Amino acid sequence: MVGQLNGQRFAAQLVLTTTPLHRFCVSEFGIGGPGMMASYVEAMPPDIGVVTNVAWDHYSAFRGLDSTAREKRVLIEALPAHGTAVLNGDDPRVVAMRPFTRARIMTFGLSEEVDVRGEEISAVWPDRLSLTVRHGSERVRVHTRLVGGHFAHAVLGALATAVAAGLPLGDAARALETVEPVDGRYSVHTIRGVTFIRDDWKAPLWSIPAAIHFLGTARARRKIFILGTISDYPGESSQKYRAVVRQASPVADKVLFVGNMAHCALRARDPSDPDRVGAFDTLLALDQFLQGFLKDGDLVLIKGSATADHLQRLVLSRTGDNRCWAPACGRAMFCSTCDLRMRA
Fold this sequence. Notes:
The chain is 29% helix and 19% strand. By secondary structure, it is α/β, with parallel strands linked by helices.
């Protein structure tokens, strides 16, 4: 994958390649600053608008959740009266968008009052995410291929959207069960007995607790947490990295940081167990350590920012599919698609 498939150029290409033979055209609208959503809805007027959450992914662009919510609300405001707003009923800033649309509203979430409700969630690794979904009198057990309970709201949002589009809940659930994790979003890669879970496209600070919870509940011989560059947060950087150490150390057998901020994390090590946390200036140094450290049955969660870290090289290295250890190349792509990865 080169870049993300939610930019304005991709959305435009998607519209131009949609024909009368297609029943639906589905696009994610990526917002990188104020005013961008208006340009999307003008070029691609939606019939169904979905807001999954308002989180800190866009802190660098909007500097706050309320301003992020206002930008996302533009999508809901643009819906026609015959359309449907599909809203996360568990997120107060998303729920607050209800008065700003003429469209029908369908909510999803885990609370009692939503239209499409999830319950009985199970997602303890090595099991994949499964949950029971209720809509009206219908009740369906959904067994997904996704990794981690934090994807429950994404599943519910997808099923609510399908229902809004007129599809039977059972049919939508069966189709969703075949969907594999997106590359770099808790995708699974087992190589020579070691299982890598890659969440290495981006690493906003607010998403770190979900990664730690996933490791904490997982069943594995040893659990290793590798963290690169954290993004999208207010305040002083070193404090954030030290906070991650304190959160992750109790649940992971090894916590390893790599990159420019790695060594500041060492200040939060427990003096009684200093070897549990490690820091590496370069990815090559970390890879050399892992070659002798990892063992059969280990579970390794890799969390980082693709453009800054390119942590996928740690996985490619174990199969001999990487020779590039450039500290920074600025390419917004995964290394598996890069023509430089086999150049020493």
